[in-house]
Amino acid sequence: MKREEAVLRELNLYPLWKRRGGAGTPADAPLQPAAQEPVVSPQPVEVASAPAAPDTAGERKEIISKLPWPELKALVRDCTACKLRAGCKQTVFGVGDEKADWLFVGEGPGADEDAKGEPFVGQAGKLLDNMLLSIKLKRGNNVYIANIVKCRPPNNRTPEGDEIATCLPYLHRQIALIQPKIIIALGKTAATSLLERDATLGSLRGKVHEFHGTPLIITYHPAYLLRTPQDKAKAWEDLRLAVKTAES
Ligand code: SF4
Questions:
Q1: Which atom of ligand 1 lies nearest, measured to the CA of 79?
Q2: Domains, the chain, with CATH or none
Q3: Whose CA is nearest to atom 4 of ligand 1?
Protein backbone atom coordinates (compact mmCIF):
# COMPACT_ATOMS: atom_id res chain seq x y z
CA MET A 1 0.00 0.00 0.00
CA LYS A 2 1.34 3.44 -0.94
CA ARG A 3 2.20 5.81 1.92
CA GLU A 4 -0.38 8.36 0.69
CA GLU A 5 -3.11 5.73 0.60
CA ALA A 6 -2.12 4.51 4.06
CA VAL A 7 -2.38 8.04 5.47
CA LEU A 8 -5.79 8.60 3.90
CA ARG A 9 -7.01 5.22 5.12
CA GLU A 10 -5.85 6.11 8.60
CA LEU A 11 -7.99 9.23 8.46
CA ASN A 12 -10.99 7.31 7.03
CA LEU A 13 -10.68 9.38 3.87
CA TYR A 14 -9.90 6.68 1.35
CA PRO A 15 -11.10 6.54 -1.38
CA LEU A 16 -10.68 10.28 -1.93
CA TRP A 17 -13.72 12.48 -1.50
CA LYS A 18 -15.26 13.80 -4.69
CA ARG A 19 -17.18 17.04 -5.25
CA ARG A 20 -20.92 16.42 -5.63
CA GLY A 21 -21.85 16.33 -9.30
CA GLY A 22 -18.32 16.40 -10.63
CA ALA A 23 -14.80 15.21 -10.38
CA GLY A 24 -12.80 16.21 -7.36
CA THR A 25 -10.49 19.18 -7.67
CA PRO A 26 -7.25 19.75 -5.82
CA ALA A 27 -9.16 22.08 -3.48
CA ASP A 28 -11.55 19.26 -2.56
CA ALA A 29 -9.07 16.49 -2.17
CA PRO A 30 -7.13 16.02 1.01
CA LEU A 31 -3.74 17.61 0.72
CA GLN A 32 -1.01 15.28 -0.35
CA PRO A 33 1.30 14.02 2.34
CA ALA A 34 4.96 14.80 2.26
CA ALA A 35 7.14 12.08 0.83
CA GLN A 36 9.25 11.56 3.90
CA GLU A 37 8.36 9.96 7.17
CA PRO A 38 8.05 12.48 10.01
CA VAL A 39 11.21 13.00 11.96
CA VAL A 40 10.44 12.33 15.60
CA SER A 41 13.05 13.67 17.88
CA PRO A 42 12.63 14.83 21.43
CA GLN A 43 13.27 18.47 22.10
CA PRO A 44 16.70 18.59 23.68
CA VAL A 45 16.48 20.07 27.13
CA GLU A 46 19.22 22.62 27.58
CA VAL A 47 20.87 22.55 30.94
CA ALA A 48 19.85 25.53 33.03
CA SER A 49 19.07 26.15 36.64
CA ALA A 50 15.45 26.47 37.62
CA PRO A 51 14.61 29.92 39.01
CA ALA A 52 14.04 30.26 42.75
CA ALA A 53 10.57 29.26 43.97
CA PRO A 54 8.09 32.18 44.11
CA ASP A 55 5.88 32.87 47.14
CA THR A 56 2.46 33.19 45.50
CA ALA A 57 0.65 31.88 42.43
CA GLY A 58 0.60 35.40 41.02
CA GLU A 59 4.35 35.82 41.48
CA ARG A 60 4.91 32.40 39.97
CA LYS A 61 2.91 33.32 36.86
CA GLU A 62 4.77 36.60 36.60
CA ILE A 63 8.16 34.87 36.78
CA ILE A 64 7.18 32.19 34.27
CA SER A 65 5.83 34.80 31.85
CA LYS A 66 9.32 36.29 31.48
CA LEU A 67 11.47 33.16 31.22
CA PRO A 68 13.59 32.39 28.16
CA TRP A 69 13.53 28.81 26.77
CA PRO A 70 16.41 27.31 28.81
CA GLU A 71 15.08 28.51 32.18
CA LEU A 72 11.52 27.57 31.26
CA LYS A 73 12.64 24.03 30.35
CA ALA A 74 14.63 23.75 33.56
CA LEU A 75 11.70 24.95 35.65
CA VAL A 76 9.33 22.42 34.07
CA ARG A 77 11.90 19.64 34.37
CA ASP A 78 12.19 20.21 38.13
CA CYS A 79 8.58 21.21 38.77
CA THR A 80 6.68 19.71 41.68
CA ALA A 81 4.05 22.44 41.86
CA CYS A 82 1.03 20.13 41.67
CA LYS A 83 0.17 16.61 42.75
CA LEU A 84 0.61 15.13 39.26
CA ARG A 85 4.38 15.16 39.62
CA ALA A 86 4.34 12.47 42.30
CA GLY A 87 2.81 9.90 39.95
CA CYS A 88 4.82 10.38 36.77
CA LYS A 89 8.29 9.34 35.66
CA GLN A 90 9.21 12.70 34.16
CA THR A 91 7.72 15.95 32.92
CA VAL A 92 6.95 16.16 29.20
CA PHE A 93 7.80 19.67 28.09
CA GLY A 94 6.93 19.73 24.39
CA VAL A 95 8.62 19.03 21.10
CA GLY A 96 9.22 20.70 17.79
CA ASP A 97 10.22 23.85 16.02
CA GLU A 98 10.44 26.68 18.53
CA LYS A 99 9.58 29.18 15.80
CA ALA A 100 6.73 27.10 14.36
CA ASP A 101 3.69 28.63 12.68
CA TRP A 102 1.61 25.66 13.82
CA LEU A 103 1.11 24.75 17.47
CA PHE A 104 -0.83 21.61 18.41
CA VAL A 105 -1.96 21.33 22.03
CA GLY A 106 -3.15 18.13 23.65
CA GLU A 107 -4.35 17.32 27.15
CA GLY A 108 -1.46 15.63 28.95
CA PRO A 109 1.05 12.81 28.65
CA GLY A 110 -0.06 9.18 28.67
CA ALA A 111 2.01 6.13 29.58
CA ASP A 112 4.07 6.14 26.37
CA GLU A 113 4.72 9.87 26.60
CA ASP A 114 5.66 9.58 30.27
CA ALA A 115 8.16 6.85 29.42
CA LYS A 116 9.68 8.69 26.45
CA GLY A 117 9.43 12.28 27.63
CA GLU A 118 7.79 13.40 24.39
CA PRO A 119 4.16 14.31 23.67
CA PHE A 120 2.04 12.22 21.31
CA VAL A 121 3.97 9.00 20.86
CA GLY A 122 2.32 5.58 20.56
CA GLN A 123 -0.85 5.02 18.55
CA ALA A 124 -2.36 8.46 19.18
CA GLY A 125 0.95 10.01 18.15
CA LYS A 126 0.97 8.00 14.92
CA LEU A 127 -2.49 9.23 14.11
CA LEU A 128 -1.47 12.82 14.88
CA ASP A 129 1.53 12.42 12.55
CA ASN A 130 -0.83 11.23 9.82
CA MET A 131 -3.16 14.14 10.48
CA LEU A 132 -0.14 16.44 10.08
CA LEU A 133 0.92 14.70 6.88
CA SER A 134 -2.57 15.10 5.44
CA ILE A 135 -2.10 18.89 5.56
CA LYS A 136 1.54 18.74 4.41
CA LEU A 137 3.01 19.20 7.87
CA LYS A 138 5.36 17.05 9.86
CA ARG A 139 6.48 16.92 13.44
CA GLY A 140 9.42 19.17 14.14
CA ASN A 141 9.15 21.11 10.88
CA ASN A 142 7.20 24.33 11.40
CA VAL A 143 5.17 22.40 13.98
CA TYR A 144 5.36 22.43 17.76
CA ILE A 145 3.44 19.97 19.95
CA ALA A 146 2.69 20.52 23.63
CA ASN A 147 0.17 19.62 26.29
CA ILE A 148 -1.95 21.49 28.81
CA VAL A 149 -0.32 19.61 31.71
CA LYS A 150 3.28 18.39 31.57
CA CYS A 151 2.91 15.40 33.91
CA ARG A 152 0.93 12.23 33.33
CA PRO A 153 -2.33 12.10 35.31
CA PRO A 154 -2.76 8.76 37.14
CA ASN A 155 -4.59 6.14 35.05
CA ASN A 156 -4.79 8.71 32.26
CA ARG A 157 -7.62 10.53 34.00
CA THR A 158 -8.55 14.04 32.90
CA PRO A 159 -6.40 16.65 34.68
CA GLU A 160 -8.23 18.44 37.46
CA GLY A 161 -8.89 22.17 37.53
CA ASP A 162 -6.20 23.00 40.07
CA GLU A 163 -3.62 20.94 38.14
CA ILE A 164 -4.49 22.71 34.90
CA ALA A 165 -4.40 26.13 36.55
CA THR A 166 -0.98 25.39 38.06
CA CYS A 167 0.55 24.09 34.84
CA LEU A 168 -1.03 26.42 32.31
CA PRO A 169 1.44 29.32 32.80
CA TYR A 170 4.11 27.06 31.25
CA LEU A 171 2.07 26.58 28.08
CA HIS A 172 1.21 30.27 27.98
CA ARG A 173 4.92 31.06 28.07
CA GLN A 174 5.64 28.47 25.37
CA ILE A 175 3.01 30.12 23.18
CA ALA A 176 4.45 33.58 23.82
CA LEU A 177 7.93 32.37 22.88
CA ILE A 178 6.85 30.42 19.80
CA GLN A 179 4.40 33.07 18.52
CA PRO A 180 2.55 30.58 16.30
CA LYS A 181 0.29 31.74 13.46
CA ILE A 182 -2.34 29.21 14.46
CA ILE A 183 -3.12 26.96 17.42
CA ILE A 184 -4.96 23.66 17.14
CA ALA A 185 -6.50 22.40 20.38
CA LEU A 186 -6.83 18.62 20.39
CA GLY A 187 -9.77 17.62 22.55
CA LYS A 188 -12.07 19.28 25.04
CA THR A 189 -9.54 19.74 27.85
CA ALA A 190 -7.12 21.60 25.60
CA ALA A 191 -9.91 23.68 24.10
CA THR A 192 -11.64 24.71 27.31
CA SER A 193 -8.33 25.34 29.11
CA LEU A 194 -7.19 27.73 26.39
CA LEU A 195 -10.58 29.40 26.09
CA GLU A 196 -11.01 29.48 29.88
CA ARG A 197 -14.66 28.47 29.65
CA ASP A 198 -16.54 25.21 29.66
CA ALA A 199 -18.37 23.96 26.58
CA THR A 200 -18.83 20.74 24.65
CA LEU A 201 -16.32 19.96 21.95
CA GLY A 202 -19.17 19.63 19.48
CA SER A 203 -20.22 23.22 20.13
CA LEU A 204 -16.65 24.54 19.80
CA ARG A 205 -15.39 22.84 16.65
CA GLY A 206 -16.11 24.18 13.17
CA LYS A 207 -15.37 27.78 14.20
CA VAL A 208 -12.32 29.99 14.41
CA HIS A 209 -11.69 31.03 18.02
CA GLU A 210 -8.89 33.20 19.36
CA PHE A 211 -6.23 32.75 21.99
CA HIS A 212 -4.79 36.17 22.84
CA GLY A 213 -5.16 37.25 19.22
CA THR A 214 -3.94 34.00 17.65
CA PRO A 215 -6.51 31.95 15.68
CA LEU A 216 -7.51 28.82 17.56
CA ILE A 217 -9.10 25.81 15.87
CA ILE A 218 -10.62 23.04 17.95
CA THR A 219 -10.82 19.43 16.94
CA TYR A 220 -10.87 15.94 18.41
CA HIS A 221 -8.00 14.41 20.34
CA PRO A 222 -6.31 11.62 18.32
CA ALA A 223 -6.88 9.15 21.19
CA TYR A 224 -10.63 9.85 20.92
CA LEU A 225 -10.46 9.36 17.14
CA LEU A 226 -8.83 5.97 17.64
CA ARG A 227 -11.85 4.96 19.74
CA THR A 228 -14.37 6.74 17.51
CA PRO A 229 -13.10 6.44 13.94
CA GLN A 230 -16.43 7.63 12.51
CA ASP A 231 -15.48 11.15 13.68
CA LYS A 232 -12.26 11.22 11.66
CA ALA A 233 -14.10 12.88 8.78
CA LYS A 234 -15.10 15.73 11.11
CA ALA A 235 -11.48 16.06 12.23
CA TRP A 236 -10.51 16.33 8.57
CA GLU A 237 -13.04 19.18 8.15
CA ASP A 238 -11.41 20.90 11.14
CA LEU A 239 -7.95 20.51 9.61
CA ARG A 240 -9.18 21.99 6.35
CA LEU A 241 -10.59 24.94 8.30
CA ALA A 242 -7.20 25.29 10.00
CA VAL A 243 -5.36 25.34 6.66
CA LYS A 244 -7.79 27.91 5.27
CA THR A 245 -7.41 30.05 8.39
CA ALA A 246 -3.59 29.80 8.37
CA GLU A 247 -3.49 30.82 4.71
CA SER A 248 -5.84 33.78 5.11
FE1 SF4 B 1 4.45 21.07 37.52
FE2 SF4 B 1 2.73 20.92 35.49
FE3 SF4 B 1 3.87 18.69 36.41
FE4 SF4 B 1 2.03 19.93 37.87
S5 SF4 B 1 1.70 18.97 35.85
S6 SF4 B 1 4.01 19.16 38.59
S7 SF4 B 1 2.45 22.10 37.39
S8 SF4 B 1 4.90 20.42 35.41
A1: 1
A2: 58-247 (3.40.470.10)
A3: 82
